[in-house]
Amino acid sequence: IDAALPIDAALPIDAALPIDAALPIDAALPIDAALPIDAALPVDAALPIDAAAPAEAALPFAPGFYHEVTPVYVERVLGPPRYHIADAEKKLRPGVATALAATPDGGMLMFIEASKMPGKGKILLTGNMRNVMQESAYTAVSYVRSKAEKLRLAPEFLKDVDLHLHIPQAGIPKDGASCGLALFAAVSSLLLDHALRADVALCGELSLRGAVLEIDDLKQKLLAAHRAGIREVVVPERNRRELSELPAQIAEKLTIHLVRSLEEVLPLVLEQPSSDV
User: Fold this and answer.
1) Phi-psi region of 204 (alpha: psi -120 to 50; beta: other; left: phi over 0)
2) pLDDT in tens, 66-94
3) What is the reported pLDDT for 53?
4) pTM of structure
5) Contact present, 85 and 105 (Cβ < 8 Å)
6) Which listed residue (136, 174, 178, 219) is catalytic?
7) In whole angstroms, what is the distance from residue 6 CA to residue 32 CA?
8) 178 part of the active site
9) Of the candidates 137, 139, 146, which has an alpha carbon nearest to the alpha carbon of residue 99?
């Protein structure tokens, strides 16, 4: 095979097909001439970033750019608030109490509303109350009935009326043993036709004997009260040890009433009669 077809003699590659001569790449396709990028697509002319989108408006946190962070500026950058945090009411009508609740995001104010109408002693519960909170509501009503004489109510006040207890924002499920005090205060306020103080919030559970029971997440609830403008809070005595977890600057601005019995609650939360009455 080597004698019959000497590869070097039969196909002198260098002589038959000089690559540089057959395909002079530089001559046939001069890249700079065929695609003059600068001439065809001048970036500055096609996309004048400074003219179309000033850096200050498009990228408020660009290097070297500084801006004072104010509520107005934050809303302009992030858009309007998606969630509304309830603030303390300026004045409450009879039958409304301010409660404190814990959420996965912290704490929040929650208003308990009580109303009555002609009926046969039925108790209506709405606002997406779950089992534990429903039991607290029934317990609160039963305790008020058992203390009717002491509260100066007619012994059979529930005979000819129906009671309706409601918590706004029915789309949010509500449960947990911490609203018993507020439910009791709302029912008492309604039946006594005497408003509660708007600057006082309650959190705590109750027993049928009138004891105030311990609750969970007290710190989150007190922080929510302070954030919403509440200045006094009624909480269980059994939660006293948890007050040490509250930041000092918050504790200084809150008046915290520790109670053991429901009999201590109404004097703290009922609105005082005006001096001109």
Assistant:
1) left
2) 778 888 888 888 888 776 666 778 899 99
3) 42
4) 0.71
5) no
6) 178
7) 43
8) yes
9) 137
